[in-house]
Specification:
The chain has two domains: about 1-100 and about 185-345, no CATH class; about 105-175. It is globular and about 85 Å long. The mean pLDDT is about 85. The chain has about 350 residues and is an alpha+beta fold. The strands form two sheets. It has a five-stranded antiparallel beta sheet, with no helix packed on it. Strands 1-7-8-9 form a four-stranded antiparallel beta sheet. The protein has helices at about 1-5, 25-30, 50, 55-75, 105-135, 140-175, 205-210, 265-275, 295-305, 320-335; strands at about 35, 90, 95-100, 185-190, 195-200, 215-220, 225-230, 235-245, 250-255. α5 (about 105-135) runs antiparallel to α6. A hairpin with a 3-residue loop joins β2 and β3.
Length: about 350
Amino acid sequence: MSSSYYAPTAYRSDQIPKQPPSAERSWIRRVAKVRLPWGMTREVAPDDFLVERKPSSLRRQENRVKEREEKLALGTYVPAPYEHVDFHDREDHERFRFALWSRRSHFWIYIYGGGKFFTWFMIPLILFAYVGIITIDTGKSWEHTSIEFLPFVCFFVLLPACCWALASLVIRYFPHLWVKPSRGPIWEINRRTGLVTLFDYDNHGEYKKNGTIGELTAPFYEFDAYIATTPDRQGLPMNVLYIAHRYRDIVINFGALVPAGAGELCCALWDFLQNYMDTSRPLPDLPRYEEFRHLDPVTAQYDREVGRNPRLWIDMDDETFEGALYHMRGQIDQIDTFRRPNLMARYVEYVD
């Protein structure tokens, strides 16, 4: 079944075809100094990939699905708001498709998060400054000092608090004001087909004319991974993972998947992407794929052979999960990406 399930273009690390010499990509060298090697991957992924789907979250999701099925059978089910809205993202055994929410949605999320942060951040600072001035400047009464501090309190505390309160009200009670999908996905990596797609919203003007989204598609093995390092405002290095096509102008930025910072996270993400796309091996053993493992032929066969518990993550207790998370973080810290040979060099002559 697996031979008919996967497309002929599906990626296998043990069957990589010979390819033409790479084109010189001077532009990628301007933003990225390090090309990551292919192969010899570890069973790692960014630790956020575990945290986002804790066993407790999987159990809640399972209960919601059961409750929904029961209500559907009884004819009493009422769909949740926006349940049938397509937000364009997918994460399953076939594809990893990434999409952002609309600008309107991001606006209210930022207002909520920023207002909450600045409110709690400024309250202790204002109180500390207020008490300090009263203690040092004994010539002023506390009433006079309070009046002087009032504009600071209004601007640095009340204003962000009002933003926080307004955004909380909108997010909780008026979803139609902020919940809106974006115009479409940004990129997709497809395990079943072995193809990488960058969605083109220029498309020679076709998107503006009739809404047609272009697709720039190429096999996964024709891409190389790079780490771009730029300084932040404090001068600290910010590392972001890119993949760039060797022969065409297709570049995908994975900065939204992991926090910009430690290069080890970028290396772990590159290992994850290779493992996810490799149909000669099972899906990465992560909570996000628990419900899909039996649908991928290679993964299902592997799980039968090793006797893997199909509810491994769902039934995992908190202590065991914390141990798995600790182990994953240790693997990330010890990742040896920069000491590996580039196995793709067996099939490609690099000219840059």
